[in-house]
Design a protein that fits this description.
about 400 residues; Aspartate Aminotransferase, domain 2; Aspartate Aminotransferase, domain 1; 5-stranded mixed β-sheet
């Protein structure tokens, strides 16, 4: 049975549906709708569709269902709902869960679009949001109230790589009946089991490591069947945030090599952190499981590896950072991450540029900070590329 399989086996086989043709590679059911043999069958399906019965691609699709079942098996979740993008997953999870008058506690160190949802969108609909320093457990303790409905955090924050103590925050939230929603994209499902640590709902941007080769947008929300099918699915299927069958097929193919890619990328990221720590042109090097990271012990306790991303804080601010970026030859500038190609971005002028300078400063996003997503190139080539670019500073 698939529940007894090891993760590597689940990544290749879990959730597979085969047609009458017995295809080896999963089929793409590139269809918007489905036909019925009778009016009675159509009526019955709209009342309650079975596991292999589909109505409309916005509600579900065989290829999408395979992706959902496979990622749920890997994560150890009861169920999953695939979405058009990672942000559709974040928006869907929070908007379906919350109502006017609800209270949410969130870490402040978030990706810019996540922050926009919590800071701008949710308050429009009467949801009160309290922001805390995510690494400060006392701040969580002070902010969580008896009427708190949910807590939200990135398990490793973008871009400063703060590490959240998932077990401790979850215990506080569960003490008042709050739902714990964790964006686990930086940690990946390969390196961290957030549900086992206490999270109730886990979100991924499948655009990142799951695709892993810069091709398609996608996202997924994982949790209990009760949450996914009774709370999330009605919201998603009526607001149109479904994943396309073609993109789901790409994500299925990505899952087959996810562990191999992420393991190699994480080893490369750690090698870069080891080599660059203490470099004279860097204020700091941030990588979750590296000794120089302030929460390295927590990261090692929660993760089997530190992920594929590190941050370099270059002395000299924006001007120095731009010189560094423009001197790179292998590592390419892009605001994506988790790709087979190494990518770098300058958060202060890209992903987090809408934040006020004082807010960026409070989050540790300095003008010299660059985020490096390590790909599958030889780490020695990447180190040489970075060191040459630092010489240009």
């Amino acid at each position: 049975m698939s529940e007894n399989w090891k993760p590597a086996t689940k990544l290749v086989h879990a959730g597979t549906r085969r047609s009458q043709y017995g295809e080896t590679s999963e089929a793409i059911f590139l269809t918007q709708g489905f036909v019925y043999d009778s009016a009675e069958q159509a009526e019955a399906r709209f009342i309650e569709a079975g596991a292999d019965e589909f109505i409309y691609a916005r509600y579900g699709n065989p290829t999408v269902a395979m992706f959902e079942e496979r990622i749920a098996a890997l994560e150890g979740a009861e169920d999953a709902f695939a979405t058009a993008s990672g942000m559709a997953a974040v928006n869907g999870a929070l908007m379906s869960l919350l109502r006017a008058g609800d209270h949410v506690v969130s870490s402040r160190a978030l990706f810019g679009s996540c922050l926009y949802i919590l800071e701008d969108i949710l308050p429009r609909y009467g949801v009160e949001v309290s922001f805390v320093e995510g690494t400060d457990l006392q701040a969580w303790r002070d902010a969580i109230r008896p009427d708190t409905k949910a807590v939200f955090f990135e398990s490793i924050s973008n871009p400063t790589l703060d590490v959240i103590d998932i077990r401790a925050v979850s215990e506080m939230a569960h003490a008042v009946g709050a739902v714990v929603v964790a964006d686990n994209v930086f940690a990946t499902p390969v390196f961290q089991r957030s549900l086992e640590l206490g999270a109730d709902v886990v979100i991924y941007s499948a655009t990142k490591h799951i695709d892993g080769q810069g091709r398609c947008l996608g996202g997924v929300v994982l949790g209990t069947t009760e949450f996914v099918r009774k709370t999330l699915e009605p919201y998603m299927k009526h607001t149109g945030g479904a994943l396309s069958p073609f993109n789901a097929w790409v994500m299925l193919k990505g899952l087959e090599t996810l562990a191999l890619r992420c393991t190699a990328q994480a080893a490369g990221a750690l090698a870069l952190a080891d080599r660059l720590a203490g470099h004279g042109r860097l204020e700091r090097v941030l990588y979750p499981t590296h000794d120089a990271h302030p929460q390295a012990a927590l990261a090692r306790a929660q993760m089997t590896a530190g992920g594929t991303v590190l941050a370099l804080d270059i002395k000299g601010g924006k001007e120095a950072a731009f010189r560094f970026l423009n001197a790179l030859r292998i590592i390419r500038m892009s605001n994506n991450l988790g790709d087979a190609k190494s990518l770098v971005t300058h958060p202060a002028t890209t992903t987090h540029q809408r934040l006020a300078p004082e807010t960026r400063a409070a989050l540790g996003i300095t003008d010299g900070l660059v985020r490096v997503s390590v790909g599958l190139e030889d780490p020695e080539d990447l180190i040489a590329d970075i060191e040459t670019a630092l010489d240009a500073v």
